C-alpha cells in the first residue's frame, strides 16, 4: 500500500515572490516529477496552479473546515499586522479578509507550518526601516520569539514553525525540507535554536569560499570587483553566517562571494538593519567588529597581523585587482 | 447590472483583485485593486544611498535584476559615473537573462494553462493543450521549467545568485568574466537557443525575427499549425478570438532597452501612438503620479516622482487600491514588450498592432518575438567582452543631488528617482511597469490601461472567474509586488 500524498499548500504574503521563483531553479530536470516521486502533492501554489479566484477560496474553506488534509502550510513573505493590528495592509483578494486571519486559521489545521524565506521567518526586508506595515515572521520578529503565531505555537506535529530562512531561500533547502517532512525524518533535533533546518544551518557561508586564500593572509578587496577577501573592508559576514551557500551553490555555480559581493547575512534574523552600510565593514580602532564568533578576539587579531605580514606578493596584488595579475608559479620540480 | 469580485488571481506575480460591473454578458466597467502594501519607499528613507542596491531587488522576486539595474542607473546618474563597456555589456546580459526568463515563464507557466480549462473542451486543440500545458503534468510545462533552470545558471556565474543579486553596481558589475568562462556562457546561451528553436518555434530564431508582416506570420503558421508551441498559440488566437480581446489605450511607452557603450539602445525609446501610427520622443518630465483613488496621501495633487510622496491613508474615501495612477502628459499609457517592439519598429509587430491594436494577441506576440530577437543580441554582447579590461569603476559617496534610473523590465518601463541629502536618501520613488498598466482611475475619473482593456470582455453564463478576464489580465503579465512595492 502506498502512503497518501503529502499535501502542501503554499501562500504568499508580504514578500516579493522571490522564494517561489528561486524554488523553480531547483537542481532537477523534472521539477514536478521530482516532487511527485517524493510523495509531495501541491494542493495549490500561486505560480503553478490552474485554480484561480473562487476555486482557490473553495479549497481554503475546505482546509479550514477539516475536509481537506493539510500536511504542510508553506508561507512565503512576512505577515503584515498593520495598520493598528488590523492586517489591512494585505487583504486576501476576493475574500475581504486580511491574510493574517487566513494564516492563523490554516496554521491551526496544518500538520507542519513552514516559513519559506527570511520574511516569513523573521519579518525580513519588509520589516526594514520604520517597518511601515508592522511586518513580522510567523513565529519570530527578528530574533525575538513571538511573531504572528506566538512563541508557544506548535503545529499538529508538535514542531515549532520550521524557518527555511534566506533572502531568497535556496531551492535545495526548501525541497530537502519538504522531502524530509514528507518522509517523517525531520524532528526537533534537526532544527537549530532558531528553528532552521540544521542540514544547512550548521554550516557557515565561509566554508568553501573561493576567497579563502585571501582570507588566510588578510589580503583584502578594497573596491567592487576586486578579488580579495571582503571581510576587512567590504562588509562580508560570511564567517559568522549560518548557511551552506559556498558548498551548495546557487544557480549552478554561484554564491554571493563568488559573484563578487559580500555576504549580508540574509539567513539571519534582523539582517535587513545591520546598523552600518551593507558593503562597509564596521571597525573599532581599525579592527573589524564582526569577527568569527567562536574564536577569541585577541587570537584572531594576533594571527591576522602575523599572516598579513607574511602575505605572498601574488596574493597581495591579486586581492586588489579584478583579474589575476600574478599567477601561481609553475615550478619544474615535482610536487613533494 | 451585476457586480462580480474576481480574485485572488494567481499565475501573476503578487496580489490582484478585480471588480467588474457586468451588463448583458459584457464587462461595462472594471476597477483594479492591488490589495497588498509593503512600503519600500518608506523603508528607504534615511538609508545610505548605496544600500538601495540591497533593498530594491527585494521589491520583486521575478524581476529583481530589473530593479537593481534601475537603481544602479539612478545612483550612476546621481554620482555622475559611467560603467565601462564590459560593465554595460555584462549588465545587459544579466538583464536580458531575466527578461527572457520572464517571457518564458509567462508563456509556459502563467498564460497558456488557461487554455486547458474545460470551457475550451470543444476546441480541436484542447487535448493537445492539456498534453502540453496542463499545470504540473504538461510535457512542455515541465521541459520549460527545466530549460529555465538551466538558463538561470548564466546568473549563477554572472550574478552569484538569482534572484536578489548584488553584483550590479552603479559603476558596472562586480563579477569579471574570464576568457574561458565567456566560452562557457556562450554555450549556455546556445543551449537556450536550441530549446526555443526546438520546442517554442520549431524554427530558427532568424526565421521568426525575419517575419516582416502578418501575412508572412500566418503563411508560416499555415504550413503546420500545431508544430511548435508558438504556432499552437497562433491557432488559439484564431479560434479563441484573442486578436480583438482586451484592447489597450493606444499609447505605448518605452524608455529604451539595452543601452550600448557608444550611446543609443538596442531597442529605442519613445511613445508610439496608435492614432497616428508614429513614434513621439520621450519626455519623462511629463510624468505625474495621481493618488486620488489610492489608499495613499494625495496632498498637493499629482506629483512628479522626484517630489513624490508615498504615505498610507487607508480610510480614504473613493480609494480602492494601493497603486497610484501614473500619467504621461496627463494620458493613460500602456507599457511592455509591445511598446518596446513598436518603438523598435519591428515590422511584424507594427503590422499586427496597426490591424488589431494592443490586444491579448499582439501583447503575447511581442513577448515571443523578443525571445527570438534578444538571444542573438546576447551572443553578440558576450562576444564583445574584453578579457582583462575593467568591469566596474568605483562609486563616489553619493552625498547630494538627484538621480534618475530608467530601464526596461520584461513587463515594461521601470523608473527609479532618488534624492540624496547629506549622504542619506531623502526621497526614493519607483514607478514600475504594472503601476502604469494596472493603474486605477485618476482625478478626472479616467480608467487605467487594464481597466480600459477589460471593458467589453465577455462573461459567459455561470462564470465566477471569467476566462476572458483571465486572458486579458495575464496578457499584461502583471507584477503586483512591483506595482505597489
Automatic annotation (TrEMBL), chain A:
Cofactor dependence: [4Fe-4S] cluster; [3Fe-4S] cluster
Domain NADH:ubiquinone oxidoreductase-like 20kDa subunit per the UniProt entry, residue ranges: 16-181
EC code(s) of this entry: 1.12.99.6
Alphabetical UniProt keywords: 3Fe-4S, 4Fe-4S, Iron, Iron-sulfur, Metal-binding, Oxidoreductase, Signal, Ubiquinone
Gene Ontology, cellular component aspect: [Ni-Fe] hydrogenase complex; cell envelope; ferredoxin hydrogenase complex; membrane
Binding site for [3Fe-4S] cluster: 245, 263, 266
Pfam families, per database record: NiFe_hyd_SSU_C, Oxidored_q6
Cell compartments where the protein resides: Cell envelope
Keyword Membrane included in the entry's annotation: no
Protein residues bound to [4Fe-4S] cluster 1: 16, 19, 119, 167
Reaction(s) catalysed by this chain's protein: H2 + A = AH2
GO biological process, one term: anaerobic respiration
Domain Cytochrome-c3 hydrogenase C-terminal: 203-278
GO molecular function: 3 iron, 4 sulfur cluster binding; 4 iron, 4 sulfur cluster binding; electron transfer activity; ferredoxin hydrogenase activity; hydrogenase (acceptor) activity; metal ion binding
Binding site for [4Fe-4S] cluster 2: 206, 209, 229, 236
Family from the record: Belongs to the [NiFe]/[NiFeSe] hydrogenase small subunit family.
Subunit structure as annotated in this protein's UniProt entry: Heterodimer of a large and a small subunit.
Name this protein carries in UniProt: hydrogenase (acceptor)
Species per Swiss-Prot/TrEMBL record: Polaromonas naphthalenivorans (strain CJ2)
Automatic annotation (TrEMBL), chain B:
GO CC term (a single one): cell envelope
Residues annotated for Fe cation binding in this entry: 63, 482
Residues that bind Mg(2+): 41, 430, 485
First-listed, main subcellular location of the protein, grouped into a coarse class: other
Cofactor(s) required for function per UniProt: Fe cation; Ni(2+)
Pfam families linked to this entry: NiFeSe_Hases (PF00374)
Compartment(s): Cell envelope
GO molecular function: ferredoxin hydrogenase activity; nickel cation binding
Alphabetical UniProt keywords: Iron, Magnesium, Metal-binding, Nickel, Oxidoreductase
Binding positions for Ni(2+) per the UniProt entry: 60, 63, 479
Family, similarity comment: Belongs to the [NiFe]/[NiFeSe] hydrogenase large subunit family.
This protein's name: Nickel-dependent hydrogenase large subunit
Organism this protein belongs to: Polaromonas hydrogenivorans
Amino acid at each position: 500500500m502506498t502512503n497518501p500524498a503529502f499535501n502542501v499548500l503554499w501562500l504568499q504574503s508580504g514578500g516579493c515572490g522571490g522564494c517561489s521563483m528561486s524554488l523553480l531553479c531547483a537542481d532537477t530536470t523534472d521539477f514536478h516529477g521530482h516532487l511527485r516521486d517524493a510523495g509531495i502533492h501541491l494542493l495549490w501554489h500561486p505560480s503553478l496552479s490552474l485554480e484561480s479566484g473562487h476555486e482557490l477560496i473553495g479549497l481554503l474553506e475546505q482546509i479550514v473546515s477539516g475536509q481537506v488534509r493539510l500536511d504542510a502550510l508553506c508561507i512565503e513573505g512576512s505577515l503584515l499586522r498593520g495598520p493598528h493590528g488590523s492586517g489591512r495592509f494585505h487583504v486576501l483578494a476576493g475574500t475581504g479578509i486580511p491574510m493574517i486571519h487566513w494564516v492563523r486559521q490554516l496554521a491551526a489545521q496544518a500538520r507542519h507550518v513552514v516559513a519559506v524565506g527570511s520574511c516569513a521567518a523573521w519579518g525580513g526586508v519588509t520589516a526594514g526601516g520604520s517597518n511601515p506595515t508592522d511586518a513580522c515572521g510567523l513565529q519570530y520578529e527578528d530574533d525575538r520569539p513571538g511573531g504572528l503565531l506566538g512563541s508557544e505555537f506548535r503545529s499538529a506535529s508538535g514542531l515549532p514553525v520550521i524557518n527555511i530562512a534566506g533572502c531568497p531561500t535556496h531551492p535545495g533547502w526548501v525541497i530537502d525540507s519538504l522531502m524530509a517532512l514528507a518522509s517523517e525524518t525531520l524532528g526537533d533535533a534537526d532544527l537549530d535554536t532558531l528553528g532552521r533546518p540544521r542540514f544547512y544551518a550548521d554550516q557557515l557561508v565561509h566554508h568553501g569560499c573561493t576567497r579563502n586564500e585571501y582570507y588566510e593572509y588578510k589580503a583584502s578587496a578594497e573596491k567592487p570587483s576586486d578579488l580579495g577577501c571582503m571581510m576587512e573592508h567590504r562588509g562580508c559576514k560570511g564567517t559568522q553566517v549560518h548557511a551552506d551557500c559556498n558548498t551548495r551553490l546557487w544557480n549552478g555555480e554561484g554564491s554571493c562571494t563568488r559573484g563578487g559581493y559580500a555576504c549580508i547575512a540574509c539567513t539571519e534574523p534582523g539582517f535587513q538593519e545591520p546598523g552600518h552600510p551593507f558593503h562597509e565593514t564596521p571597525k573599532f580602532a581599525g579592527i573589524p567588529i564582526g569577527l568569527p564568533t567562536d574564536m577569541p578576539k585577541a587570537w584572531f587579531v594576533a594571527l591576522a597581523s602575523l599572516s598579513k605580514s607574511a602575505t605572498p606578493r601574488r596574493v597581495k596584488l591579486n586581492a586588489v585587482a579584478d583579474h589575476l595579475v600574478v599567477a601561481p608559479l609553475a615550478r619544474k620540480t615535482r610536487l613533494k | 447590472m451585476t457586480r462580480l469580485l474576481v480574485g485572488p488571481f494567481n499565475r501573476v506575480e503578487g496580489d490582484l483583485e478585480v471588480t467588474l460591473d457586468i451588463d448583458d454578458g459584457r464587462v461595462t466597467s472594471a476597477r483594479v485593486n492591488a490589495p497588498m502594501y509593503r512600503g519600500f519607499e518608506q523603508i528607504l528613507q534615511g538609508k545610505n544611498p548605496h544600500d538601495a542596491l540591497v533593498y530594491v531587488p527585494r521589491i520583486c522576486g521575478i524581476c529583481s535584476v530589473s530593479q537593481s539595474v534601475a537603481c544602479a542607473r539612478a545612483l550612476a546618474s546621481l554620482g555622475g559615473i559611467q560603467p565601462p563597456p564590459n560593465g554595460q555589456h555584462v549588465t545587459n546580459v544579466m538583464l536580458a537573462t531575466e527578461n527572457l526568463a520572464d517571457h518564458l515563464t509567462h508563456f509556459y507557466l502563467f498564460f497558456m494553462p488557461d487554455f486547458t480549462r474545460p470551457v475550451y473542451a470543444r476546441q480541436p486543440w484542447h487535448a493537445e493543450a492539456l498534453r502540453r500545458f496542463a499545470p504540473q503534468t504538461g510535457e512542455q510545462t515541465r521541459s520549460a521549467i527545466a530549460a529555465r533552470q538551466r538558463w538561470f545558471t548564466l546568473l549563477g556565474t554572472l550574478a552569484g545568485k538569482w534572484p536578489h543579486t548584488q553584483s550590479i553596481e552603479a559603476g558596472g558589475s562586480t563579477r569579471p568574466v574570464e576568457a574561458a568562462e565567456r566560452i562557457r556562457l556562450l554555450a549556455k546561451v546556445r543551449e537556450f537557443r536550441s530549446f526555443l528553436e526546438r520546442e517554442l518555434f520549431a524554427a530558427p530564431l532568424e526565421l521568426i525575427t525575419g517575419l516582416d508582416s502578418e501575412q508572412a506570420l500566418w503563411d508560416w503558421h499555415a504550413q503546420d499549425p500545431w508544430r511548435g508551441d508558438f504556432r499552437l498559440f497562433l491557432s488559439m488566437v484564431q479560434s479563441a478570438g484573442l486578436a480583438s480581446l482586451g484592447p489597450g489605450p493606444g499609447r505605448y511607452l518605452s524608455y529604451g532597452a539595452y543601452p550600448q557603450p557608444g550611446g543609443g539602445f538596442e531597442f529605442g525609446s519613445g511613445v508610439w501612438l496608435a492614432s497616428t501610427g508614429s513614434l513621439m520622443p520621450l519626455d519623462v518630465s511629463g510624468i505625474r503620479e495621481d493618488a486620488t483613488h489610492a489608499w495613499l496621501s494625495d496632498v498637493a495633487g499629482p506629483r512628479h516622482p522626484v517630489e513624490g510622496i508615498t504615505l498610507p491613508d487607508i480610510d480614504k474615501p473613493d480609494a480602492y487600491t494601493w497603486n497610484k495612477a501614473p500619467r504621461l502628459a496627463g494620458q493613460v499609457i500602456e507599457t511592455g514588450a509591445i511598446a518596446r517592439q513598436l518603438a523598435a519598429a519591428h515590422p511584424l509587430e507594427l503590422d499586427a498592432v496597426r490591424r488589431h491594436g494592443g490586444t491579448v494577441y499582439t501583447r503575447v506576440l511581442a513577448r515571443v518575438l523578443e525571445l527570438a530577437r534578444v538571444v542573438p543580441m546576447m551572443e553578440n554582447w558576450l562576444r564583445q567582452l574584453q578579457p582583462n579590461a575593467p568591469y566596474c569603476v568605483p562609486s563616489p559617496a553619493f552625498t547630494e543631488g538627484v538621480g534618475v534610473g530608467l530601464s526596461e523590465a520584461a513587463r515594461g518601463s521601470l523608473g527609479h528617482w532618488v534624492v540624496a541629502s547629506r549622504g542619506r536618501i531623502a526621497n526614493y520613488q519607483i514607478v514600475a511597469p504594472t503601476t502604469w498598466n494596472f493603474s486605477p482611475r485618476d482625478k478626472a475619473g479616467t480608467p487605467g490601461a487594464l481597466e480600459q482593456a477589460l471593458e467589453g470582455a465577455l462573461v459567459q453564463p455561470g462564470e465566477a472567474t471569467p476566462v476572458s478576464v483571465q486572458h486579458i489580465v495575464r496578457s499584461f503579465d502583471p507584477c503586483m509586488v512591483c506595482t505597489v512595492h
